[in-house]
Write a structure and sequence with these properties.
Elements lengths: L1 H21 L1 E9 L4 H16 L4 E7 L5 H13 L4 E5 L5 E3 L1 H8 L2 E4 L4 E3 L13 H17 L4 H9 L3 E3 H6 L5 E2 L3 H7 L4 E4 L2 E4 L5 E5 L4 H8 L3 H20 L5 H17 L6 H19 L5 H16 L14 H33 L7 E4 L8 E4 L2 E6 L9 E8 L2 E8 L5
Parallel strand pairs: 1-2, 1-11, 2-3, 3-5, 4-6, 5-8, 14-16
Antiparallel strand pairs: 6-7, 9-10, 12-13, 12-15, 13-14, 15-16
Helix pairs in contact: 2-3, 2-9, 3-4, 5-6, 10-11, 10-12, 10-14, 12-13, 13-14
């Protein structure tokens, strides 16, 4: 009996062991959009999880216009130190690995591209959208050449990706020894790299993909939220909403909620701006627009400040994102800018209408409708005196002697003085 149980246990062990070997797990991580701190943390944690669970490898499916130098280096350093194979795959069709994406692709153990994709244009830029200094450029050239050398790739091409900002299709990249394989999808990619030899921790390793499963690792809610903020459209909308909140709070002190919402929106907008080159002139123009709008709300000129604010906001919105020339990923769409400016005009218009109505109402209550109102003489009134009319004290005079606390009626308004007559004596209140 014991012998049969032992043999059964051994049989189960081999069955499960064979199953584990047959279905090797490849962890799939997805990179889409600007390379920022949130994406870097997501990739690093994904690779660490694959290492901890002894996965067969990590696949990074990438489509990026580039991103922060610091975040890119964090990702590259993790790939170089990875204990599991990292396969970077530019996909789907039409995707790209530009700028920071080029460095990540070249640092990977296996680099691949789908049909209709491209790689390159890795020249670094500063935070106002201009080409980076010679010092930073030379450092980037040395860095990318080292990555190409370590992975046995074309160092001359890597250097030209920065110096000349060249970009290559998947066919050209394969021909120039920039990538290892072209594949239409992940299944074809894994079939093509079966038995391919790579080096990890100075040891040779053959990748086995004869039987595999793909395990997709989604970014956490935190990663998704922070990465979402790097979308220029979202950052710009939050920035404008923040402006609305600040203007409302300044125009109506104590409203609290709009001010808090505006402040939070501005903070979130600047978190997004941290990953996008911003032009100082554009920021100054938008701040100037805020000042104009506040001036309109506080001392209405019935359009003068508003027109200046709209012009300043429009120019500032266009100048704020100097990297638009590098592609639509680096700036909000013109449609979003137009819609937000139109929304601004509508909101300011509503505020102006409310101000005009309030002022007209104040004028009507202040003088024209005073005639016929009744009130109380605060002091004795004859050639001069004070009467309380409509809850306000006014300078008053009369053709007859009126005693304090007599009931009076307004019969004429002359400037800021009221002509009154007595209609009842000594009213006690």
């Amino acid at each position: 009996m014991k012998k049969n149980f032992f043999l059964f246990t051994i049989l189960l062990f081999f069955i499960f062991a064979n199953q584990l070997l047959a279905n090797q797990e490849f962890y799939l991580l997805t990179v889409k959009g600007i390379i920022d701190a949130a994406l870097a943390d997501y990739l690093v944690k994904g690779i660490e999880k694959a290492e901890k669970e002894n996965a067969a490898g990590v696949i990074i499916e990438m489509d990026t216009p580039g991103g922060l130098l610091k975040s890119m280096r964090t990702i590259v350093d993790k790939i170089l130190a990875s204990k599991v194979p990292v396969i970077t795959y530019v996909s789907p069709r039409g995707a790209r690995a530009a700028s920071a994406g080029t460095f990540i692709l070249l640092s990977s153990h296996i680099s691949a591209m789908a049909e209709g994709t491209n790689i390159g244009t890795a020249s670094p830029i500063d935070f106002v959208g201009n080409k980076a200094s010679e010092k930073i450029t030379n450092d980037s050239i040395a860095y990318i050449k080292n990555l190409a050398r370590m992975k046995g790739k074309n160092q001359k091409w890597a250097e030209d990706a920065i110096k000349k900002n060249i970009s290559s299709s998947e066919v050209e990249a394969l021909k120039e020894n920039v990538i290892d394989v072209i594949a239409k999808d992940i299944d074809e990619l894994l079939k093509k790299i079966h038995n391919k030899q790579i080096e990890i921790e100075n040891k040779k390793l053959n990748i086995k993909t004869d039987s595999y499963v793909i395990k997709k690792l989604e970014p956490s809610t935190k990663h998704k939220f922070l990465h979402y903020l790097t979308d220029p459209n979202i950052s710009y909308i939050l920035f404008i909403i923040g402006i609305y909140g600040v203007i409302y709070e300044l125009a109506h002190p104590g409203a609290f909620l709009p001010g808090v919402a505006g402040a939070i929106s501005l903070v979130l907008a600047f978190i997004g701006f941290d990953s996008i080159p911003i032009n100082a002139a554009g920021m100054i123009l938008i701040v100037l627009a805020i000042i104009f709008f506040i001036a309109e709300a506080m001392t209405p000129t019935f359009g003068a400040w508003t027109i200046g604010g709209i012009i300043s906001l429009t120019l500032g919105s266009l100048f704020l994102f100097p990297s638009r020339k590098f592609g639509q990923d680096w700036a909000p769409s013109y449609l979003i800018i137009v819609l937000m400016i139109i929304l601004t005009v509508i909101i300011i218009g509503i505020v102006l209408v409310a101000i005009i109505k309030a002022q007209r109402k104040k004028r009507v209550i202040g003088k024209e409708t005073l005639i016929g109102l009744k009130g109380i003489a605060v002091t004795d009134i004859f050639e001069s005196g004070v009467a309380n009319i409509g809850g306000e004290e006014w300078q008053a005079y009369s053709e007859e002697q009126i005693k304090a606390r007599d009931i009076v009626e307004v019969i004429e308004v002359i400037g800021m003085r009221l002509k009154v007559k007595k209609i009842e004596k000594n009213k006690e209140v």
